[in-house]
Specification:
Number of strands: 11
Number of domains: 1
Shape: elongated
Mean pLDDT: 75
CATH superfamily: Pleckstrin-homology domain (PH domain)/Phosphotyrosine-binding domain (PTB)
CATH topology: PH-domain like
Helix content: 25-40%
Distance between the termini: 16 Å
CATH architecture: Roll
Amino acid sequence: MVYDHLVTDVLVNGQLVAFNPFGLVNWGHDNATYPCAAAEGGHGPVDELGSVATMSHETTLIYSESLLRQAVFGFWRRSVGVGFFVALLIAALGLVVLVALGQSSWIIGGLAAVLVVGIAFTIVIYVVHYRRSLHKFRQMGQPRAVFRADESSFTMSSDIGTTTLQWSAVKELWQLPSVWLFLYSKAQFSTLPLACLSPETQAYIVQRIRESGGKVDG
């Protein structure tokens, strides 16, 4: 994982910390098969499964704007929710029907206002998160960082800074097709690119979050 927005300020237990939000992880020695380079607890890409619960995992993360867009879009889509879009669709259909029937009551104005506000709301959510992430991404001298996870905490380091948090700070883990999102609140998250995470590291992250009281949402 690595930073979320790519460097998002996060307030955890009253302490302001700096984050980054997305990254490309490297973990294997075979660069032809695994395009990123990383080390996990000093082991190769294949470790004994029995050691997953006790070993630490360390991974080099490389960021890209493409990954940032995937992370922000996934967060935006799930945050807004299907129900919200269904409500907008119903309002739009109702407006069309009323206009077709020649109605000119206040209901039409109300539905139109709901549509405008609803659409603007969804756009603002995406734009704010994306622009913040992009700004932080471009502040980085080198688009890379190191993610290290152990039993009690995880650490993210880049040329912007280093942050260590307890696993209990992660309220939810969203498992999206290409990235995982660590959610600290409804508006703050960090991104973990899935493509370069070994199965052992994935299992370790899920285990630590669940055992620390966080929710894992596939």
